[in-house]
Here is the input.
Amino acid sequence: MTEEFHGAKLALLHGDTLLAYQRDDRPGLRHAGRWDLPGGGREGAETPEQTVLRELEEEFGLRLAPDRLIWRRRYPSMDHPGAFGWFFAGAIEAGEIAAIRFGEEGQRWAMLAVSDFLRRADAVPALQARVADYLGERP
Here is the structure.
């Protein structure tokens, strides 16, 4: 997975809930005010796993080992035509949820029911589709 890519996102599930956050609602911000998942843009020569795990730590204060990423798929980039990104899925434990320290990006975070995230009109549509892909194939 060392090919060029733009970024990576992560679905972290605990039972039938999913870690998500509501993006800031600033003019010009991509997906402003929508419910999003942890992740973001690549920095330097990071691998997809390094990108998504760094972003998770920056956004939620959580440090997970790469082997916690149990599913992955390459997709077209949500924000950069012609580029691509990676989508991962994994599990989060109750103690990790309790240890979340929300960063400076976004309005708030929540453990949303997966079914609610998939139906929300104010969630990032591409991520809803990717979560559905994972759910259809999860081990």
